[in-house]
Amino acid sequence: MTLPRAPRGRPRDSRAHQAILTAAAELVAELGYAATSIGAVAARAGVGKDTVYRRWSGKAELVYEAVFTGTEAAPVPDTGSLPGDLTALLEELVQEFSAPAAAAALPGLLADFAASPELQARIRSEFLAPAKAGLVELFERAVQRGEVDPGLPVDLVLDTLAGAIFFHVGLVGEQPSPRLATQLAALVGRGIESR
Amino acid sequence: MTLPRAPRGRPRDSRAHQAILTAAAELVAELGYAATSIGAVAARAGVGKDTVYRRWSGKAELVYEAVFTGTEAAPVPDTGSLPGDLTALLEELVQEFSAPAAAAALPGLLADFAASPELQARIRSEFLAPAKAGLVELFERAVQRGEVDPGLPVDLVLDTLAGAIFFHVGLVGEQPSPRLATQLAALVGRGIESR
Amino acid sequence: MTLPRAPRGRPRDSRAHQAILTAAAELVAELGYAATSIGAVAARAGVGKDTVYRRWSGKAELVYEAVFTGTEAAPVPDTGSLPGDLTALLEELVQEFSAPAAAAALPGLLADFAASPELQARIRSEFLAPAKAGLVELFERAVQRGEVDPGLPVDLVLDTLAGAIFFHVGLVGEQPSPRLATQLAALVGRGIESR
Amino acid sequence: MTLPRAPRGRPRDSRAHQAILTAAAELVAELGYAATSIGAVAARAGVGKDTVYRRWSGKAELVYEAVFTGTEAAPVPDTGSLPGDLTALLEELVQEFSAPAAAAALPGLLADFAASPELQARIRSEFLAPAKAGLVELFERAVQRGEVDPGLPVDLVLDTLAGAIFFHVGLVGEQPSPRLATQLAALVGRGIESR
DNA sequence: TATTAACCGAGACGGTACGTCCGGTCTTGGA
DNA sequence: TCCAAGACCGGACGTACCGTCTCGGTTAATA
Predict the structure, then answer these.
(1) Distance F2 C1' – B20 CA (angstroms)
(2) Between the CA of C50 and the C1' of F15, what is the distance in angstroms?
(3) What is the pLDDT of residues A3-26, one digit of tens each?
(4) C27-48 as b/e, with b when 16 or more CB fall inside 10 Å?
């Protein structure tokens, strides 16, 4: 157990914290991920570079938190049918991935995460694990309704959904078609339904 | 018509060209994409930096050619059935994406390509367009056999297949399961077959 | 009035400052001015290149300070006679110009200074102006003793003395004859004395 | 003995020779010595770089010939008196040194010559030796007229005259005062006359 | 109330890579 | 053998960031 470690000295300034996140999200949206530097984020936030490094280990962690942690974890959709649930889930995912800052950050972010085992583990546990849990819940209900068979390769389905959207958003660079979620839900939904 | 533009002056040395590509592929496999610098590639190839910049505009273009252009364009599979064709196609794709240098390069490469409109266009026309053409051919045969309906969203299927594999390879960082191609072919194959 | 401009942030490291100057002087003496690069100076000083560029705008300014600013401004000689004063002044000047680092640096330094209006102004105000002031003082005493007439072209005399020594040292490249100062003092001294 | 070595193959193109010299003089006058590169000279002359290197060993030799060899060796002045001869000689020297291309080239040229023993020797033998010969001739006449004593340190006088003008032209960067030659002739003339 | 520890902004630190430029050489096809 | 063109290797340039460190100064909780 880690003791709570009663904090001594001056406590961290939460306004600085927020200012850094805001500055990071803005700069990523304006300049892109690669052209966003820690120094520039600190300068825009009116903060020293150390104040950034004291809280985040690097650009990837900072931008990840700035861009993807604002989103409230939406409840797992429950529309009563697998296609409906999938469509709802994907619409959410599409929306999250195609927000300006997110779309600008995603490819670079993924590259930095992929290059570091520690970050890879973090992304798996903090981003993919909850998503997988939601997907599992959704599938369990579909199994009970007889729509899919148990034993689905959930990881594969998750990689497929996320990968499809990422590839589309990352390599097109424009707002994704509004039908993307529907089409993808249909494609994958039929791919996994029982027969 | 593009004029042949009679070449003048000393022609470019094809051994230098090849040495650079080899050095780039090796360094990416050894150090990863981010830690590979143009200067280091030039040094290992025994070449001046200018000789690299004369041929490629930057790291992304160079590594892309070094890692993905060696592969011979395999013929579109024709096994007689949609699932067979898809599986064959995906096995090829999985193999190409999970070669050591390719797996090490992919995330960073995709990030750099996504960050530049010019490179984005190149990847679309040189990598995705041929793949789409192959997929179209494959689907046309499946339509004639009655396995799928005409009017498939081929782009979406392509993004789905490539995205799924990329996401899997990029975020796991290990050799992909040998069943990946089969499972994905089954998933997507069933998703698009006519009924 | 220049505001004191309260310094903020980490102060500059005076050991780095000194190490750079020492390294620059050594390299100029060893390799010559042209073969001395900022990068090599930084490396020998154990310092990043930025640390050099933060203090000096280029090689000329750095080497000038490294080679000519160590010298204490010697007091204007006062031997009681014009020939004595001139000889003493010139012996000092010869000694300063023919120190190994100075002799190696002078021609290149002069070339770089001559090529830039800003540097030209600096050399005029920081090097020539004090020398001229000393010469004026020396001449004023000689005028009072009746040795020279007032209204001497001091600038011309200064250019003549410095130019003669520079030309000799720069184009011979060896230790100047010990009689150089004496001979030159005699030549110019007689040239300006009143009759 | 070196044989005349009957030339074989295509003879050198003398128009190229002249075009290179002209281009070099122009570029030095326009951009200064340091900013003039062999490549740029070749390009402006419409010539390959090798054609330059085939005739000159480097920038210093080329610019020296381009800037200082056009001048016809003026005859040694013979006005009948030492002051007159000196003034005439110096007016010529001032004019030669302060021509636009010469003034722009001199400091850099001197630096490159000083940095190389071979070039130093060339400048001594090709530039200073003839000048010294002229000075000797001039002084011999003055000795016969009883104006100066034999045994003058001719080298020192030459360094003084040339150094004074060089220092003045190089560090002022403007057209020298028209009185420069007169003043300097008076100064040095009185310095060496017999009494 | 005084001490102390962690915070803060600023900016210098040693390093590394960038992409450009030039030097001097070499290699084409053609004159 | 020369020529124009231009590629070759090497190396310096000056800039930008990285992540760390060092200032003077601030802000609480502890003693």
Answers:
(1) 34
(2) 9
(3) 455 678 898 999 999 999 999 999
(4) bbbeebbbebebeebbebbebe
